[in-house]
C-alpha cells in the first residue's frame, strides 16, 4: 500500500475545520495554519501539526489546501509576507476551496506558477457544513487535468463528487452559478414562509408537504423549517458569504456580457438584509427581512 501524501490546510473556519477532521480521520499527515491559532486546538488534539505562517505549510506538504474568506485574504495568504509563495517548491499543488473571482484566480495561479513552479487547482465546494462534516460536498474544479487527478484521491474524502470543469478559474465560474441558484432560492423560500404565515398556514409543514415535488430542494428542506421556527443558531453559513458570491456572479455576468437580473436583485436584497446587522448571521434569518417589510 502506497504512503499517503502529506497535506497542509489554511483556513480553519466553519468549513475548513470539518474538512480537516475528515482528512485526519482518513489518515493523512496534516499541517494546519489559521490566523486565529486557537481555532486549531481540536485538530492538534486529533493529530495535526500547527505552524506559525502560511509559508511553513509548504515545508513537508505535497498538497496545500485553502478555505478562506475571499479573494483579498487568499492573495495575502499566498503572496503576502510569510505567504505560501515564500515556502513553495516546484511540483507542489495548491488546491483552493475558497469562493473567489475567476479572473483573480487565473491571475494568481499564473503568478504562483511563474514564481515558484507550484500549480493551482480552484476547487470550490457546495454542501455547507453538513456536507463538509459528512464528506458529501460537491466539488467543482478548474485546472490542468493531471493536477485535478492528482488531487482526486484526497478530495474523495471531502466530497461525494469532483467534477473537472475546465482550466483554472472554471471551478470558480461554476461556483458562481451555484450561488446564484442558492441565493435566489433562499430569498424565495423566505418569501414563501412569510406568505404562508400571513395567510394562516402552518409554515412548518411546507417542507414536508412539498418534498418530492418540483419545488423541492435541499435549501427548502433546510431553510424552510428553520425560518418557520425562527431557529437561527448555530450559524451554518454566513449572509456575508452569500452576498460576496452573488456580487461575484453579477460582476462575472458583466464581464461575459450575460444578463443576470434575478441574481442582481438577490444581491441587492441580501445587501439590504446585511445592512440590518445580519452579515454574520445564518441565511435562515432572511425570513426577518420579509417579516419586517411586509406589515
From TrEMBL:
Highest taxon, organism lineage: Bacteria
Residue ranges of every copy of the 3-hydroxyisobutyrate dehydrogenase-like NAD-binding domain listed in the record: 169-289
Molecular function terms, GO-annotated: NAD binding; NADP binding; oxidoreductase activity
UniProt keyword Oxidoreductase present: yes
Keywords assigned: NAD, Oxidoreductase
SUPFAM superfamilies named among the record's database cross-references: 6-phosphogluconate dehydrogenase C-terminal domain-like, NAD(P)-binding Rossmann-fold domains
Active site: 175
Ranges of residues in domain 6-phosphogluconate dehydrogenase NADP-binding: 7-166
InterPro entries associated with the record: 6-PGluconate_DH-like_C_sf (IPR008927), 6PGD_dom2 (IPR013328), 6PGDH_NADP-bd (IPR006115), HIBADH-like_NADP-bd (IPR029154), HIBADH-related (IPR015815), NAD(P)-bd_dom_sf (IPR036291)
Protein name: NAD(P)-dependent oxidoreductase
Annotated source species: Stutzerimonas stutzeri
